[in-house]
Amino acid sequence: MTAPHMSSVSAAPPTVPPLLQVRDLNAYYGQSHVLHGINLHVQPGEIVSLIGRNGAGKTTTLRSIMGALRTRTGSVTFDGQDILRLPSNRVAARGLAWVPEERAIMSTLTVRENLELPPARPGGWTTERAYEAFPVLRERGHHPGSKLSGGEQQMLAIVRVLRSAPRLLLLDEPSEGLAPVIVQRIGDIIEELRADGLSVLLVEQNLKFATRLADRHYVFVDGEIVEELSRADAVARRDDLLKYLSV
Ligand SMILES: Nc1ncnc2c1ncn2[C@@H]1O[C@H](COP(=O)(O)OP(=O)(O)OP(=O)(O)O)[C@@H](O)[C@H]1O
């Protein structure tokens, strides 16, 4: 592997202000310093991926942005407003929605109850729209969340947060452990969301999925970003990226 370096992204510099801007983010679990000066941004309507092997700091970055991890320093702005000091419920109220790796659905509630529980906002997804996107959820409407397959749980976890009409969706490994046909369908929905103007920050270890969807990629190694790649760079440097992901 070549020495880590920041490659220049071939896309033109952004002409509109970023929707999300993270500057010099450092995060800690107790005495353990796990993020070391993370700088990244997401433009309106952009899909950006965070890639890197297990433990590189991708999930911690999402948790830090959402305010689920409070022990961090630096700057996080959303639509030009500082959100670093806000509790996570107020971060969500600004228009960020997070689907964690463990798919936060209510296991004892039915699919329909899961869909109807989050507060609805104007422009947010209705239950009918969720059923149109993933018809299997309509078939499973009366089943408890605990009885769903992994793919069905992932679909439900994504559509239930869309009820709040977020402007930025943070997805943590949405393809993990799912059959290729389900991964394909989730990718289709993410592309539809982007077409509707939603921005997405995507943590992925599935390079095929990440390179299909993302406009730009940040490569994480040991709590730092060592590369920023455009869509074209990521395709051309696929073998290097696979090395970053291998254990
Ligand atoms: N709750 C925690 N307490 C202490 N250390 C943690 C905790 N969660 C994560 N870590 C450590 O922080 C570092 C970054 O982990 P993080 O989960 O952000 O990595 P990741 O790139 O998302 O990988 P993964 O795909 O395994 O989640 C790792 O060294 C991990 O062991």
TrEMBL record:
ABC transporter domain: residues covered: 20-247
Coiled coil segments of this chain: none
Gene3D superfamilies registered for this protein in UniProt: P-loop containing nucleotide triphosphate hydrolases
Transport keyword on record: yes
Keywords of the record: Amino-acid transport, ATP-binding, Nucleotide-binding, Transport
GO MF terms held by the record: ATP binding
InterPro entries membership: AAA+_ATPase, ABC_transporter-like_ATP-bd, ABC_transporter-like_CS, BCAA_Transport_ATP-bd_LivF, P-loop_NTPase
Family (UniProt): Belongs to the ABC transporter superfamily.
Listed name of the protein: Branched-chain amino acid transport system ATP-binding protein
Species this chain originates from: Deinococcus radiopugnans ATCC 19172
